[in-house]
Each structure stands twice: as structure tokens, then as C-alpha cells.
Amino acid sequence: MRSKHQIQGSTAARLFASFMLAALTTSVDAADSCSATGVMAGQSFSLQHCAAAVMPGDNSVTIWFNEKEITSAEREKFAISAYASSYHDGGVRTMFLVAFCPGGGATTAAPQAVTKLQLDMSHAKAPLASATWLLSDRKEFKVERLEGEAVPGGRLVGRITGQRSSDGRPYRFDLTFDLQLPTQEAAAGITCGS
Known about the structure:
Elements: H1 4-31, E1 33-40, E2 43-47, E3 49-55, E4 60-66, H2 72-81, E5 87-88, E6 91-92, E7 95-100, E8 117-122, E9 131-135, E10 141-148, E11 155-166, E12 169-180
Antiparallel strand pairs: 1-2, 1-12, 3-4, 4-7, 5-6, 7-8, 8-9, 10-11, 11-12
């Protein structure tokens, strides 16, 4: 028969193990973070949800920042298509897509290697603010920080800022991300060359 002290010790050990398992699970889930803030045609936006896609051959990455939570099904679809529709549930959604070559065609990311950004954005409160651009003028964007590997299952950390105007309307963006890239390979993305 076990003593009261042994039972309490055993219970405490199980509680400690459960606590550690929960803490590890939480830290893994919490490790991914992203933020996109700025202005679309004068209308501000702040997006805290994201998903990523990686296209191996060209080693390109596409990140989708969204105002509302991205479902598992949407995340899986995006991982293989690198596409998210600006229309959802009968209306325009506030979202920002950025596609780029973190290593300029190589797998290892480096700020100076990024020579172009493909942007696709829409705003629920200002549907006419939607825009799709390919930026290759470094005066319009700056890669403040970028590190990691542009490979399936790799991790990518960075910050990209930029601004431009279109038809006299201001556009500004500040994108930060710390993401585990999906293990699935995307069938689409921006062409990087090598």
C-alpha cells in the first residue's frame, strides 16, 4: 500500500508533467507571429492573422495577412496555391498578400537579396483601395530584417516596410513576421531565378 506522501508526490509529478506539456504546446503555437499595419488609399488597416506558402524551385515565399482568423482549411489551401481571394462571405475582406524571394533565388534569406515584392491588397471599408503591384524600385520598400530558410518546413523572420501613392492616394505598409513555413509545397508563387 502506498503512503499518503507517495500519492501526493506522484500527483504532484503528474501535475508538473501536464503543466510542462501544456506550456510546450502553447509555446509552439505562440511561436508564429505576424502583423501588417499601414494605410490603403488613406484607409488604415491592422492585420494580426497570417498564413504562408513556399514554392521550392524558385525558393519564393508568399505571406497572407488577414483581418480575421484564417481557418485550417483556408490555411491548407493557401499553402498549396499561394492564393487567397479578396472576396469572402459575400464581401471584400481586409487582407494583404506579399510574395518575394527571401534569398533572391537561393534558399537562405538575406535583406539585400530581395529585389522585388509582389503585393495584393484589399480593404473591406474601402473596396476601391484594392491594388496589385510588382515593386522593384527599392525607394518604395525596405527590407529591415530578414533571416531564415525559404524551404518547406523552414522558418522565416523579417520586417518589410514601404510606401507609394497611386492616383494621389497614399499607401504605406509595415509587415513583421516570424513564421514556420508549411511543409507542403506551393504550386505557385513569384519567380525568383537563381
